[in-house]
Amino acid sequence: MMFAVAMTFIDQTIVSIAAPDIVSELDLTSSGMQWVVNAYLLSLAAFFALGGRLADLLGPRRVVVVGTLVFVISSALCGAVPTGDYALTWLVVFRATQGFGAALLFPAALAVVVAVFPIERRGRALALFFGLTGALTALGPLLGGWLTAWTWRAIFWINVPVAVVALILTALAHISDRRRDEKLDGVGAALVAVGMGLSVLGFQQASAWGWDSAATWACIVGGLAVLYVFVRYERRVRHPLIKLQVFRDRAFTADSLVLFFAMLAFVPVFFFASVYAQISLSASPNQAALYLLYFFAGFALASQWGGRILDKQGARPAMKLGCVVGAVGFALWAGNLTDLSMSDQWPYVALAGAGIGFLLAPASTDAVNRSIDASYGEVTGITQTVRNYAASVGLAVFSTVLTHTMTDRVQDTLESRGVPSATARSAGRQISEAVTGNADGRTPTGNGPVATAMRDAMSAIRMDFAEANKWVFYGMAIALGIGYFCALRHPGGRAEEPAEEKSEQESPVHH
Fold it and tell me: Which terms does the record give in the GO molecular function aspect (predicted)?
């Protein structure tokens, strides 16, 4: 299962490194390329709840196989995109189906892992699962840099051999398929997909459309309104897509809130740290990926420790420790960004990673352990939807913070070099959008006074970018601080194993 989900984690970050090459060869616009990146994450967020429910109804092994096939076929087609007028449409469509395959695959794979291990050993097992799969996210930029040197199409083709091995291992594992004889809530699935898709789209496009855009708020408010209708509908249907009474469990609600605030930092940190390394530290894409490995060194070590704490003491101590360590790590990291020294920052980068490592597996595992009637696929779908939604919100909010702060600082820098205020503001906005949309630190060309002033000010602008990023990383520290107070709401203790599941593990039967 870890091998199967490896593809879905790598693909969250690998495409951003190859973006300049894809734009150049296929003649795409920067906004078009943003759609290629967002289509995957958008589809992932929209269909996670459906994937989790299908794992319960059809059996997790079957859904893992189908999800893997959808994902790898879509990957191969992304790599085979033709040049010409249809290139953008082709890429966006198959990136979306890639995300759909991942949304089927991940909750089903996690449901398999959960079902295999008894509750007293589940913490360590899922710590390894989340630790390894989380670390694979860091491989995305590193692998993307190496593969793009050959051809950017290889970033999609690499999934083919991985999928083949995953399917062989799945067949050899003889996984039992526990199915539920219930109907699929098609209306609920459509409502949650539209609601999640619309609201996430609004958050994703906020930096491009602007927070004052009617389209941005139409998507966000419209999506939230559809999600409200979904909640009302789910309370009336006999076999709902999501059993909302799971949120009556105080521990499950606390777990979900901690995951939400942790994910505000965890997924966005890949983007912001990578771009910071390339702009402010003048690092290559591969060096930027290595910078992120400090984060995952702390993450991987702490995730194993967090799993042991969960097994012995429950999720509450691990979540409290993780939020405190993470908040301190991100705050210290933010305070040292303007040193422009990778070697001086690594202890704080590792500390921030350790904080996320301590809490990620315990919060996710405890939420699954408290599932209603051992409906692991469904509950995994809920927790992963929360995580993806938080990541989209974090990216949107922090991108806005970075863009506005960067614009103001660059404007001040250019004005101090004699550029008129209005021109400096416009140039500052262009630079901010360029560096936050694509990690490309090339200096402007041309002989005009603005281009000349910008070239002369590039070292100052790199410092401006570091200063602007400080507020982003302080924001991540605040998010984990809020997560700490959510962890205090957890009642403590460990979840009890459902009697039905315990009897099955004492006498395993292939269903």
Answer: transmembrane transporter activity
Residues 267 and 236 in one domain: no
Low-confidence ranges of the chain (pLDDT < 50): 437-447, 450, 499-511
- Determine the Cα–Cα distance for residues 163 and 147; give it in Å rounded to an integer: 18
Instruction: State the Cα–Cα distance between residues 399 and 472, nearest whole angstrom.
Output: 8
Answer yes or no: are the C-beta atoms of 449 and 289 closer than 8 Å. no
CB atoms within 10 A of CB 217: 14
Please tell me the distance from the alpha carbon of residue 353 to that of residue 326, in angstroms, as a whole number.
7
At 436, list the tokens: 């936050």
Instruction: Please state, in angstroms and rounded to a whole number, the distance separating the CA atoms of residues 304 and 118.
Output: 17
Query: What's this model's pTM, rounded to 2 decimal places?
Result: 0.80
Q: Which residues of 235-245 are buried (b: 16+ CB within 10 A; e: fewer)?
A: eeeeebbbbee
Q: At CA 464, angle to CA 459 and CA 466, rounded to 5?
A: 100
Place of tokens 């593969």: 147
Give residue-wise pLDDT tens across range 382-409.
887 888 788 878 877 888 788 888 888 8
Residue 278 is assigned to a structural domain of this protein: yes
Of 208, 160, 205, 147, nearest to 21 (Cα)? 147
Task: Give, as one character, the DSSP assignment of residue 493.
Answer: B
**With contact defined as beta carbons under 8 Å apart, do 15 and 120 qualify?**
no
Boundaries of domain holding 231: 187-240
- Give the orientation angle of helix 159-172 with respect to helix 2-10, to 10 degrees: 160
Is residue 498 included in any domain, yes or no? no
Residues 200 and 315 in one domain: no
**Cα–Cα dist 273/251, whole Å:** 32
Same domain flag for 180 and 191: no
Same-domain check for residues 18 and 155 = yes
Q: What is the pLDDT of residues 230-247, one digit of tens each?
A: 999 988 888 888 778 788
Neighbours of 149 (CB within 10 A): 12
